[in-house]
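Problem: given the chain below (180 residues), write out its structure.
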Amino acid sequence: KKCAFERRPTPPGQHGVRRRKVGDFGLQLREKQKVRRVYGVLERQFRGYFDTAEQRPGVTGESLLRFLELRLDNVVYRMGFASSRAQARQLVGHGHFSVNGVPTNIPSFQLKPGDRVEVREGRKAREPFKLAKETLRSHQPPEWVSLDAAKLSGVVADAPRRDQMPLDLNEQLVVEYYSR
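Solution.
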């Protein structure tokens, strides 16, 4: 939404009258940058996710999005403990969460189906989680996550499918970008 190229008919600046037609490379690059920006991942880490997804059997684009969705900071956001992915990344980085009973402060930690994510016992009384407890009553998590709002915990029930990821991203353009 904030991208000047996306929301304006002319380029930013005083003399931005002409706009050239965007080629295939431009579309692919813009889509890759959009995916990176949505998930808050830097270029080298994103390339690593792509390389890992490419080696997996199945559709590369769906595997890539699955890897990004199963990051700890994204799962915390999807469960409703944070209002944005950036806030979820900060809460994870400050060590407020444990995975399967082990305190974890790595936002890029890869979760698997069956992993339990919970707010650590000493941290539940803090302000962000008091607010989260109020908003979790009306929060509807995705189908691949089961949430226990009273205990501030949840379980990754299953790996997300593409139809369970409510993003208007075209992962095929990202695959084409890296396949040139």
